[in-house]
Write the C-alpha cells for this entry.
Amino acid sequence: MRALAAALAIVALASTAVAATRFDPYKSYRFRLSMEGRPVAAFQTAQRGSVSADVVKHRAGGDPSTAHKSPGRSKFEAVTLERGLTQDSDFRDWVEGVGGASEPRRDLELTGDAAGGAGRQSLRRCWVADHSKLPTLGAGGNAVAIEHIHLACENVSPHH
C-alpha cells in the first residue's frame, strides 16, 4: 500500500514539473479567443460592441388610442480585439480572408481573465469586418502580432 502511495506521489510531482516548464505563448494576455474549442489567439484589450433592439409599435384592435411597444430585432455592434498575438495558421488564414465571400462565418469564444472581469462570451456566426496586423515576429517563429480585429457577429451572449 505504501509503495503504491509513493509511486502516485512521484507521478504527481513529475507531472507538476512538466506543467511548470510548458510554454504558453498567450500567458501574458488578458483575453483568449477560441475557435472550435482550441485557443487560437490572445489579446490585451477586448471591447464588446453595444447591443440594441428595435422598438415595434402596435395597437390593439379594440383600443385604437393606446400604442403598445414590443421588442423587435436585436442588433450587435462589432467586437473589437486589440494588441494580440496568434500562432494558429487556420485562424490567421481565416482573418486574412477579409471580404472574401468564400470565407465561412465562425463561432468563437472569448474568455477574459479574472482581472479583466469579462468571463466567457459566445460570439456566434462571426466574420472579420476589418483587421490590422504587424509583421511576422521572430526569425524562427510563426507568431503574428495583431494590432486590431473588428468581428461582426450575429449574436453575442454570455457563455453558460
The two ends are 42 Å apart (CA to CA).
